[in-house]
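Thread: quick sanity check before group meeting

JM: Hey all, I'm pulling together slides for Thursday and realized we never actually wrote out the predicted structure for the chain we discussed last week. Dropping the sequence here so it's in one place. If anyone has concerns about the input, flag it before I start.
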Amino acid sequence: MGKVRILILGGTTEARALATSLAARTDLDVILSLAGRTVDPASQPVPVRSGGFGGAEGLARYLHDEAIDLLIDATHPFAARISTNASEAAARSGVSAFALRRPAWVPVEGDDWLSVHSVAQAVAALGAEPLRVFLATGRQEAHQANAAPQHHYWVRSVDPVEPPLTVPKVAYIHSRGPFRFADELDMLQRYAIDVVVAKNSGGDATYGKIEAARRLGIKVVMIERAETTGLPVVETVAAALDRIDHFVFSLMKRGV
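JM (edit): ok, ran it. Output follows.
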């Protein structure tokens, strides 16, 4: 039996951790796919493929051409289109697949959340009264804030927002997580933030702002995830490793 070829659709902390755990294994060939949206991505422990595939059809073709045995969707919880393409491509190509998806955050005592389903809804929910808004949705949809120019925005993203917002009062914070609770607390106080707009990404890397908002009694407009269907889901890297082991063992038993 040759090496088992695994394609990880990545860009998350979990994808990197999974790739790191698999990198030294001699029974596997692991490729990590990144969307290529980040200008200076962090170094990765396995070979990287950067850029899109051309939809479900292109991904299915890649799975076939590269003789991929197992597809793992470890993309961001809000990368709905990629996840749909992964599910469709796996079905088209007959390749085994599963998703590694960290669980969503849930409100706890002291949280003041307003749940919405898109960045546009979040901006509309801010209301007419001018507010000091920490916009932590990433750069891709930051332009939605242009619809409510009465607010003063602090926009945090890894790379610059292009084109810049057209609102009269905006500051840009270029930073890559993880973000510590103490630093988030300091930032929200320093800018006298009235409301935080965030995506329900789950995980620890960006939870600091949610904890800090709770401590300061600041409202959070929380953009909830869309329901994803298609692939079976595991929630931790450990569970993903177990699933990979079962898959490799089943191939060995079949003598593939």
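AS: nice. DSSP finds seven helices and twelve strands in the chain. The two ends are 6 Å apart (CA to CA).
JM: adding both to the slides.
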